[in-house]
Structure formats: structure tokens, C-alpha cells
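User: Fold this; C-alpha cells only.

Assistant: Input:
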Amino acid sequence: MAVEPVAPAHPGEYGDRVVAVEPGGIEPVAAAGRHGKPHQLFWTWSSPNLEFATIFVGVLAVSAFGLGFWQALIAMLIGNGLGALSHAVLSARGPKYGVPQMVLSRLGFGFWGNLLPAALMSVTAGIGWFAVNSVSGAFALNTLTGLPAPACLAIVVALQIGIAFFGHNLVQAYERYIFAVLAVVFLVGTVVIFAKADAGAPSGGGGVGGFLLTVGAAFGYSAGWNPYAADYTRYLPSSVSGRAVGWFAGLGLFVSCSVLMAAGAASATIGGGGGGSPTAAFTGHMPGWLASVTLLAITLGAVAANALNVYSGALAFLCLGIRLPLAWRRAIVALGFGAIGFVLAWLGLSDAGSAYENFLLVISYWISPWLAVVFVDQFLHRGADAGRLPPEKSRRGWAGVVSFAFGAVASIALFANQSLYTAPVPKAVPAIGDITFFVGFVVAGGLYALLGREVRQRRP
């Protein structure tokens, strides 16, 4: 299999131009092409979470996992806090290296070992999340306009692919300008929902198990953005404060996820609402004018989320080492992911609930052990200048791959708890809920701390 050579992008070819197709693929961003400030990351990571997929996590916490509102809120804050913290740490490394997150993943996994997490990232972001958010956006547009759901899906997908095709600068611009609109609409909608909610309603008997399931689902949602982190900080000048980068990225993710998940949990305590689709049920609690505006915001928010999903999914795909001798190779891959995601979203229009619950938990199953390897490797080599290591093709990264695979397989086999598969531990102790993501992180991290010593001694 041929591998793509890694070379700096040509300075001045792209720069800060918005209406221009981003050239190349995963090459390091040259100093002449760096631009932007850390504060822009707040809306970069707020806008894509101001959409219905975020709200639905809160709905699941009450309606599916059996929690009361306050129980759900605490569980979601824990899950979001963990995801935002890891996101902040990963984002801070982008300006130093100037490469996407899945290229940085090679530090712990090696060039060839990184093929596994890069492939998982490609499928999760470019296809899985794309389909999930496209469905919610199509439902909202269908409820708002009355157009057939497939036609609404086609409109939403066309907008998403168009933004991702142009690349980094247009994606950042869209997140910036749509932020104010989405923030105002969802803030007003959240106030109305809370005014009608019964926060003191008794729980549905979810107990500790439901609480841990909610933590896992919230973590799976917020940490689902972790493999994208450096994709949107690599264009920042290397001189910016890493701490500021981390703060703005993590805060944008935490605030947006927590507020909208809380709104979803509150809406599930009201009862009634509209029928026909999850989005109609949520907006059915609102006055007519606000429901219409919120449906439009849900559609635009789905576009904000999927612009990132398609863009980062394409970058992860290029990290597989497949050579595409095209100046616009990233853009072409984005079109391919959009086409596949459209088909899957079309097939998923009939089932918007249980599949989403399973999807959230499965994401956390692989991201947790991946994060463990990345963070332990960063700790083992703290202070070292590893700027030349990501493109090295001679490093197979056996320690990272073994730790990742063992942590993921062992945790899933013993602790997974969902409708697709229930492992022995939750079968024997149902109250344990689903702690797969936590076990996977501990096992993979501990194993890599042992196996990585040899790598640490041989690394310059």
C-alpha cells in the first residue's frame, strides 16, 4: 500500500481565504498559513452542539435510562466534564504541531499502528455521526415545511457537504456566524421548556445503573469530538497560548452540551408534546412561532455539526496512508463520505431512538482506550520535542495497538451493557449500568504505561 508523502502546505496558497477550496490533505500547516486566535474555538465547539442530537441525550437519560431530572443533570455534567477536559488537552497540542489529530495519534500508535484508530474515526465521524445528525436535521425541516422527509434530507446533506468540501476556513466561518443565531434561539427555547418542566418528578427507577448509563452516553457524545480536536487548532500560530486554546475549546464543548442536554431532560418530564418525530415532540411544548424558529435552528445546527464530521472524517481517512494524487484530495474524500452518509441516513429515517442510544455507547467504547494511549504517551514523553515523529513510517507502534485493542476488547467483553450485547458483569449485577468506557481507559492506560517503557527508552 502506497503512503502519502508528508510535506508542508504551500504558503500563501490558502491562508485565511474563506471562499476557496483548502488544498492538500494532512500535511503540516506552514507558518505562513497560520492564522486565527484561541477565542474562536469557543464557537467552533459550541455551534456544532447546538442541535437536536445533543438534546436527545438528555431525553434518553429520563425516558430510557429512568432518571429524574436532577439525577440526569448530575450524570450529564460528569460525562460532559470528562469529555471537555480531554478535549481541552488534545486541542492545546494542535498549534505546536500543525497537523490533524489523527496524525498526532501516531505518536503513541506509530504510523502503521495508527491505521486502526484512524479507520474507526473515519467510520464514526464521516459516516456514523453524519447519518445521525442528518436524520435529526431532516426531521426538523420536515416538521417545519411539510416537505417529504427524503427531500428534506437531501437539502440538509447538500449544505453539509458543500461547507466541508471547501474546507477549514469555511467550516470555521460557518460555526462563527451561526453561533449567535443558534445560541439565542436555543436559550429562549430552553427557558420555555424549564418553565413547563416538572424537575421534581420521581425517577423511573433507573438507579445507579441508569446513572452510569447516562454518564457513559454523555461522555460518548462529548468525547466523540476528541479525535477531531487538533483539526481545528492546527491553523493557529504556534506562538499562541496552549492553555488559552484548551480553555476555549473545552469550555465551548462543555457549556453547549450541558445546557442542551439539560433542556432535553427537562422536556422529557413534561409529557405530551407533538407527535410524528422526536423533533416534533420536543418543539410541541413551545408556542407556535418559537417552535418554528427552533425547528429551523435544529436544521442549521445539524449542518454545523456535520460540517465538522465530514471534514474531520476525510482527514482521518487520509491518515490511512492511501495515496490520492489530487490537489483537492481532502475535498474529494469529503464528497465520498457525504454520499455514503446520505444513504445510511435515508435508511435510518424510520428509527431515530434506540439506534442512537447504542451508537453513543459504542463511541465511548473505542475512544476511551484510544485516549488512554494518547495521554499516557504524552505523559511518558513530556518535555520531549516529538515534532518530527508523527510522519515516521518505520514505527509500527505495537505497544499502543496492543494496549488499545486489549483495553477495548476486554472492557466490551466483560462490561458492555446495551441492547445489542449485554456482557457477563452487567448481567450478573444489573445495577452496575455501563462502565465500559471507564474500564477500557484504565486497562489500556495501565498496559501502555508498562509496554511503553521500551518505546520511551528508544525514542529520541
